[in-house]
Amino acid sequence: MKFWLKIIALTVILILVSLWAKPIMADDTNTQTNTSGSNTNITGGYESTTTNNNDGQTNTTTDNSTTTSTTNGAGIPPPSANSPSYSSMSQDVCSMGVSGSVTTGIVGISGGKHFVDENCERIKLAKVLQDFGMKVASVAVLCQDARVHAAMQSAGTPCPFNGKIGSEAQALWDKYPELRPDYDLYLAKQEIIAKVDDRIVEEARIAAEEIAAEEERLEEEARLAEIERLKQLEEARKKANEKVIIIDSDPLIIHGD
């Protein structure tokens, strides 16, 4: 008996639910925008309807789904350009690899190149010549560098010149300064030296003129002093030779030899 009561109660509940239930309709609109590279717009409308026939009960359900997706990838940047790897591949090769890359919003470019290190080559050549006992030639190779040439000049040991060393080489460098690797620096130094020498000469000339003027002033003072002294002596001599003769209370001045 209880079992049938449960069945009847469940049936009544289902009938009430079916009477109160209404078709459910869904209408959803979703818009998504991505401005970092791609633009996507998604729009969807959803409608659900279901129809069931059960013991005279009617339940209708309709399901309609429409989705539209639009993607615009025109603003996506191209992949970054990677710089190629350049290496000397050997410690005995005086070269240096340089590479670089540039990436824009439209195109990316990369490239690289090997450059010869002349200073490295010069050092290696000088070392080999030194190992062969060619000391002058080794120094001559190093003297091709302007810094070494200037340093040798400052040290008082001029670089070799056509087989000449020492003072003979210095004479040739002075005769043909255009052949110096540091010619531009040499001209700049010579210009500074000339300016300093000219200033020293001018200062010496001014000092000599001042000394001459001072000596002339002293000589003039000495001459005037001597004139004054002679004048005083002359006056004293005159006074010593004067003889005063008083006649009838009148003074009579007689000059004697």
Return the average pLDDT rounded to an integer. Answer: 74
Strand content: 15-25%
Count of DSSP helices?
6
Q: Strand count, sense and closure of the main sheet? A: 2 strands, antiparallel
Strand order of the largest sheet: 1-2
Domain count: the total is 3
Total E-strand runs = 6
Through-space gap between termini:
195 Å
Shape: elongated
Structural class: alpha+beta
Helix content: 40-55%
Low-confidence stretches: 21-42, 244-257
Can you give keywords for this protein?
257 residues, alpha+beta, two-stranded antiparallel ribbon, two-stranded antiparallel sheet, 46% helix, elongated, disordered C terminus
Care to describe what's here?
With 257 residues, the protein is of the alpha+beta class. It has 3 domains: 48 residues, no CATH class; 62 residues, no CATH class; 74 residues. The protein is built from 6 helices and 6 strands. It has a two-stranded antiparallel sheet. It has a two-stranded antiparallel ribbon with strand order 3-4. Strands 5-6 form a two-stranded antiparallel ribbon. The protein is elongated and about 190 Å long.
Task: Provide a compact summary of the structure.
The chain has helices at 2-20, 118-131, 135-142, 146-154, 166-175, 183-241; strands at residues 39-54, 57-72, 95-103, 108-116, 242-247, 250-255.
SSE layout:
Layout: H1 2-20, E1 39-54, E2 57-72, E3 95-103, E4 108-116, H2 118-131, H3 135-142, H4 146-154, H5 166-175, H6 183-241, E5 242-247, E6 250-255
Antiparallel strand pairs: 1-2, 3-4, 5-6
Helix pairs in contact: 2-3
